[in-house]
């Protein structure tokens, strides 16, 4: 399997589980809390656990959160390409998970928001490798400007995948178009897809994205599965799996990592999507961000489905 390289932002998640998200000005007692490394780590862990060689090309800082981020990368067998940025720590995020399994984020940006041209020039990609870009990075001014210039000039044969993320409406249109003009794969969830294509269904949005940007478009549609549309005009639903959701944090990341690892290993699109659906289904039954299953767990889940 070829190398999977991510410029997604690795940050530290301060996760709290609550009965419900409090109203403005009120308070609620968390039943549990954890400090976990998440953000861009989750997709890389998913790809790594499904057999890919993975490298992190994003930036990271000095301080407590930076140390936690680097340890998590090492512990998961992920190469770190960039040196530390002195004088600034890695960012962090408050992740609030309610009893329905839904999550709400508040994020503070740190060193991961300082991925510039000098840093990207350290990243040497070869044909056959996969570059994963997160929409979170495209809303940070430094990252956005550098990626919009760098991505379109990547070597032919490098597979570029973009997950637009929940802040898609905050990405400058010229930045989004620059990255999608070179992208091979676009992934979103249903909410993000409908923000980008108001009035359409998930399947219609996938078809519209594939046509507009000449990409393989994947729209995750919860337990229903995911809609897949090719630039050639074929659109279909790959059915999902009914499970009892405990925590949806990281499910989309698990889906992305396993789907792209599957494509890199030579799987057909539909089979890669089915494995990704299984990975997401397993992930939502677990608490925390980096909850992607291993190859063996996916295989066992599909065998029993």
Automatic annotation (TrEMBL):
One of its GO terms (molecular function) is kinase activity. Transmembrane segments: none annotated. Residues 2-292 form the Carbohydrate kinase PfkB domain. It comes from the Bacteria. InterPro entries: PfkB_dom, Ribokinase-like. Keywords: Kinase, Transferase. One of its GO terms (cellular component) is cytosol. PANTHER family: RIBOKINASE (PTHR10584:SF166), SUGAR KINASE (PTHR10584). This is PfkB family carbohydrate kinase. It comes from Kineosporia babensis.
């Amino acid at each position: 399997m070829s190398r999977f390289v991510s410029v997604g932002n690795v940050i530290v998640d301060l996760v709290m589980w609550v009965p419900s998200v409090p109203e403005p000005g009120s308070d609620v007692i968390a039943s549990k809390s954890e400090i976990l490394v998440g953000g861009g780590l989750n997709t890389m862990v998913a790809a790594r656990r499904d057999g890919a060689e993975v490298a992190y090309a994003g930036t990271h800082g000095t301080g407590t959160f930076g140390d936690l981020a680097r340890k998590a990368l090492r512990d998961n067998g992920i190469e770190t390409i960039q040196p530390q940025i002195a004088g600034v720590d890695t960012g962090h995020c408050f992740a609030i998970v309610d009893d329905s399994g839904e999550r709400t984020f508040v994020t503070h940006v740190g060193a991961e928001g300082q991925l510039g041209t000098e840093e990207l020039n350290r990243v040497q990609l070869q044909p056959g490798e996969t570059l994963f870009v997160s929409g979170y990075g495209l809303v940070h001014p430094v990252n956005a400007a550098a990626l919009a210039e760098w991505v379109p000039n990547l070597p032919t044969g490098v597979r570029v995948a973009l997950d637009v993320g929940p802040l898609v409406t905050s990405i400058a249109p010229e930045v989004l178009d620059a990255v999608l003009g070179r992208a091979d794969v676009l992934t979103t969830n249903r909410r993000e897809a409908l923000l980008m294509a108001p009035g359409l269904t998930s399947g219609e949005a996938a078809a519209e994205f594939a046509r507009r940007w000449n990409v393989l478009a994947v729209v995750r549609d919860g337990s229903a599965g995911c809609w897949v549309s090719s630039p050639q005009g074929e659109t279909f639903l790959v059915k999902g799996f009914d499970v009892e959701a405990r925590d949806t944090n990281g499910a989309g990341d698990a889906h992305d990592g396993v789907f792209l690892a599957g494509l890199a290993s030579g799987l057909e699109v539909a089979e890669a999507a089915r494995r990704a659906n299984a990975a997401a289904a397993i992930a939502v039954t677990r608490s925390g961000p980096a909850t992607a299953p291993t190859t063996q767990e996916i295989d066992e889940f599909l065998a029993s489905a």
